[in-house]
Amino acid sequence: MPKSFSTIKRPLSLEEKRQRAIEYNRYKAPFEPVVNVEDFAKREIFDETIILKCLHCGFQEEVDYEFIEESWDPHDSDYPIAYCAKCDQPEVVPLDIYQKLKKQ
Ligand SMILES: [Zn+2]
């Protein structure tokens, strides 16, 4: 489903993917299978982040999109709204939405 805002996708380098697989194997629960580091490094893996901005105070930050996606239900609203880390108002929205709303 197309989103009404954009996110930033950055492919992980081979070294980053190896590092992640090694870390996963180190901290995984005993019943979970071991990840083959070189197979894992061959996969396409992206880090996805989103830039959020506060409509109230203008505070801007880039966060992992995963966290936003978890707490946002697309059926409730067209875009995620969060609390601002700076002014504590529930007015933090994706940067695209911020620019759209400020232009009106
Ligand atoms: Zn704020």
List keywords for this structure.
4-stranded antiparallel β-sheet, binds zinc ion, 104 residues, elongated, single chain, 4 strands
Termini separation comes to 26 Å
Radius of gyration: 18 Å
- DSSP helix count? 4
Sheet with most strands: 4 strands, antiparallel
Fraction of residues in β-strands: 15-25%
Query: What count of structural domains?
Result: 1
Average predicted confidence as pLDDT: 94
How many strand units? 4
Question: What features would you describe in this structure?
Answer:
- The chain is of the alpha+beta class.
- It has one domain.
- It contains 4 helices and 4 strands.
- It is elongated.
- The protein binds zinc ion.
- The site of zinc ion (ZN) has 8 residues, from loops.
Helices and strands in order:
Blueprint: E1 8-11, H1 14-27, H2 37-42, E2 46-54, E3 60-64, H3 65-71, E4 92-94, H4 95-103
The structure holds zinc ion.
Zinc ion binds next to loops.
Short description, anyone?
The chain has helices at 14-27, 37-42, 65-71, 95-103, and strands at residues 8-11, 46-54, 60-64, 92-94. The protein has 104 residues and is an alpha+beta fold.
